[in-house]
């Protein structure tokens, strides 16, 4: 017995759509129906390796230039000498970070934290405006991957030849090509590992020791660790790092809006796509379905299917499509850098985007914090430690003495001369002038004894002795650079009296 009240109703249109049968909606439901795009689903190929087709063009020249600058800076920065030492060096043994004459100590690492936070907001700001342009043009993973692909093209040939070589049986030619390729890959990976460690160990010793086989086991282990990571990432994983390991690909969409400029296909102009001969009259769209945009894509996607998180905005598909459009005499930028507003025929208005303005304001605030932190950064570090064994001592000449230990660190890369002075609630004195000579990066421990008259007033301008706060008074230790009086630091402490 059929129960119409309790049995679920099933739309026959949904059943046929799932089954892959294309149907036309009834006229009565045309306004409410959602167009269904059928994508054939077949068995996954056994070997789904992406063989990137080499592409030339404006955006590829731009990417190659920026990648070359990035790689050159990576290798050359540790080789630059400044003021007698490596210009950029994270010295883990001495716990110092040298950067072109500026020395940062562990106490200054909040400044590095501000720099990293600012870099993150700057990345968000650029992403809100230009999408994943960082991934396509400046990401180290992209740069090293294209280096390895370039070597692969030079040795094994183009993408079609590499596919044939993959399927061919092992013979002398294949062994020579594969061995040569992997040896060059390994050499570049080893250079990369050495270059990375050169930021932590002086570069003048890293390269001779590694390639002269005289490095310590610890140094060798770290260099080979980063070399193996480079080899695996750039030679084998490649786009898998972008698709599955990089978190940026996952949360980038949260920064996009209708004003964000990304690589996009213009369906209103390109559809319906289809092959044709040059100068052939046709009612088809401008897309000739050459599939070059897929062949040149480092992540293997079809940009014509819309915005996808796998796209790294490298512009390879733009150059490939423009090349085809030029051959057929069509207007360029069927695939190009454009926003959702552009596709809708509207103009871009990034200043109306709260995300764009918010990230921009946050970046400016963080830059201001960095500038303020750098401006307030002192080249001297002073710690005053009181003698905790005795609060005070009375001398035979009617004086009160307190003992202190000064810990002074010269945070610069040159020797400094400092002079100590005292001030505070009482008139204080020392047995002699304290002049400190501290070498670059050295911390000096200096014990001193401070004296004050037993009947001294707290304030020199106050004649009433009874206004003195019994038992404790304020004392200020001040260190001043004798060559640069503006370079000074002070710290308060307590002076105990009976």
UniProtKB/TrEMBL annotation:
According to the lineage, what is the superkingdom?
Bacteria
Q: Which UniProt keywords apply?
A: 4Fe-4S, Electron transport, Iron, Iron-sulfur, Membrane, Metal-binding, Transmembrane, Transmembrane helix, Transport
Please list the residue ranges annotated as the 4Fe-4S ferredoxin-type domain.
278-306
Gene3D superfamilies xrefs: Immunoglobulins
TM regions (residue ranges): 66-84, 111-131, 182-201, 207-232, 356-376
Q: Which PANTHER family match?
A: FERREDOXIN-TYPE PROTEIN NAPH
**What does the record list as coiled-coil region(s)?**
none
A single MF term (Gene Ontology): 4 iron, 4 sulfur cluster binding
| Gene Ontology CC terms, in alphabetical order | plasma membrane
**Name by which UniProt lists this protein:** Cytochrome c oxidase accessory protein FixG
The record's SUPFAM superfamilies line, in alphabetical order, gives: 4Fe-4S ferredoxins
